[in-house]
């Protein structure tokens, strides 16, 4: 769906490239996560892909069409839901949707059907007559999303769509994004909330300082650089002799009835499980596996993802 090759971009007054030598392919039908801290280049990249900015160097193709040469054709099949509110606060929900339906040049006989579709997806039926300025933060985000659905996009860009909303509104937006994607729309989802990207996306690209750190599925990213962590909760606290024997395992930490290893190989796990079994030490719960994207990013850059 999207092919990017050696993309570079620098703002006119900038001293360095905001996007530097970026190459990326995004398949049709993907729910693709674009992850990175503030200032990593996510929003700039989205602005380039939607035609709001023009890159100085590199090649971009969307649905086999080239940017900027085929910009009109590309903009007809895409939609951007920006981080900022993109509606008129003095207009009602319905008035905003009808207005943007006309801006998008949707045929007059289709406008009301399109508006109805968007209202249904965003569950705004009870709020159509309310002025946008009086909506809660979550409802404003849903109105933003509804406007972005009016042209029935094949490719939907969502730039930080859950900023400033409560957990219930966030859950609704994430579930709605899943449904939109399952209906066939390719979604590019940008965020610095790593837990959202982990939960939603089938592929993830991580940007930092305008460069691609890595790209792949969540399992691919974590398996390449993250060690496996082991956390075990026992049903009872180990005896002194058991504790002394356990502490002979390099890297094992014991606190009360809890055991923890930050870098646990499979051989370590097997040896530990054998010891627990021979000592008749019962396990209440156990977690073993790779870390998360926050840990991965910290290992790669030495910085927190949300820095």
Automatic annotation (TrEMBL):
Keyword annotations of the record: ATP-binding, Nucleotide-binding
Ranges where the ABC transporter domain occurs: 2-234
Keyword Nucleotide-binding attributed: yes
Name assigned to this protein: Multidrug ABC transporter, ATP-binding protein
Pfam family of the protein (one): ABC_tran
InterPro entries: AAA+_ATPase (IPR003593), ABC_transporter-like_ATP-bd (IPR003439), P-loop_NTPase (IPR027417)
Organism: mine drainage metagenome
UniProt GO MF annotations: ATP binding; ATP hydrolysis activity
């Amino acid at each position: 769906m999207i092919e990017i090759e050696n993309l570079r971009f620098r703002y006119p007054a900038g001293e360095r490239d905001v996007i530097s030598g970026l190459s990326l392919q995004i398949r049709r039908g993907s729910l693709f996560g674009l992850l990175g801290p503030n200032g990593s280049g996510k929003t700039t990249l989205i602005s380039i892909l939607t035609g709001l900015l023009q890159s100085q160097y590199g090649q971009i193709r969307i649905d086999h069409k080239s940017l900027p040469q085929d910009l009109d054709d590309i903009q007809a099949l895409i939609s951007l839901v920006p981080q900022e509110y993109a509606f008129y606060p003095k207009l009602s929900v319905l008035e905003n949707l009808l207005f943007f339906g006309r801006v998008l040049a949707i045929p007059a006989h289709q406008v009301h059907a399109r508006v109805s579709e968007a209202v249904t997806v965003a569950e705004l039926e009870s709020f159509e007559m309310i002025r946008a300025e009086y909506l809660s933060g979550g409802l404003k985000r849903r109105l933003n999303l509804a406007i972005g659905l009016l042209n029935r996009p094949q490719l939907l860009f969502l730039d930080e769509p859950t900023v400033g909303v409560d957990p219930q509104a966030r859950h609704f937006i994430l579930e709605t994004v899943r449904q939109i994607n399952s209906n066939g729309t390719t979604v590019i989802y940008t965020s610095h909330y790593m837990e959202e990207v982990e939960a939603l996306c089938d592929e993830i690209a991580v940007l930092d300082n305008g460069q691609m750190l890595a790209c792949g599925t969540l399992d691919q990213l974590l398996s390449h650089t993250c060690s496996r962590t082991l956390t075990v909760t026992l049903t009872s606290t180990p005896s002194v002799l058991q504790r002394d024997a356990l502490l002979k395992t390099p890297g094992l930490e014991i606190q009360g009835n809890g055991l923890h290893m930050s870098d646990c190989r499979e051989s370590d796990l097997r040896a530990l499980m054998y010891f627990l079994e021979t000592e008749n030490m019962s396990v209440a719960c156990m977690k073993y596996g790779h870390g998360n994207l926050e840990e991965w990013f910290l290992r790669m850059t030495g910085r927190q993802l949300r820095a």
